[in-house]
């Protein structure tokens, strides 16, 4: 997937901090859910997931692009997307219904999935395969009715008692798993991330705003194992190596492209222009603006 020339939106953090007027948020104890209802004929953007996400389309269509894959989520369908990945989206309302798009997003932390899998007492019946980062499923009438029943909670989030958000999220997962064995299997596979090549994982995410925890998760390792294995391969710390790779890429783009310093900052995995300028000058001795070529006449 081509990295966009603007800052990736990290969710749920950014959406919770700066919700739009079309969004209603339900959150408690690190758990969060968002309902959004808007009119759109094709809004686009790029998101980076800090938690696993379940998105249910009630009206309209939500398109997810990840790598070379394109997944279209239509009315009465849901999509499960794994955390620590960046994907492009397109939101489209239905022409016959005034371009209304209505969907619900639920963010699932690893701890919640682990608790659910223990409660579900699920035992895999087949050999685990590498889990797909994005998967689309149909919503049946019973699940759709349950989602509709959650809307009053979004109307008065301040009145929700402590722990109820967690109970509702667990109830939602049980409701899906009861009617969808494939979904239950996918949640189990999220728990058992297969070990992957550190080089492949880092190369694929070098320009994404990933943390070391993200890279460790994507490689199927604990954070301590990831750091140890990384140093054995590269003979340096991952933070230093990744920063230098990003700075080298930024230097190349500053010299050979017409992009602005801000665009290059965000498209090489940095999240703050001031920090980018500071570390760039420390590495190369000059600020990034010094490498910008004057426009050709």
TrEMBL record:
Transmembrane segments: none annotated. The keyword Transcription regulation applies. The keyword Amino-acid biosynthesis does not apply. GO terms for molecular function: DNA-binding transcription factor activity; sequence-specific DNA binding. Residues 196-294 form the HTH araC/xylS-type domain. Keywords: DNA-binding, Transcription, Transcription regulation. InterPro entries: ExsA-like_N, Homeodomain-like_sf, HTH-like, HTH_AraC, HTH_AraC-typ_CS, Tscrpt_reg_AraC-type_HTH. This is Helix-turn-helix domain-containing protein. It comes from Paenibacillus algorifonticola. The lineage of its organism: Bacteria, Bacillati, Bacillota, Bacilli, Bacillales.
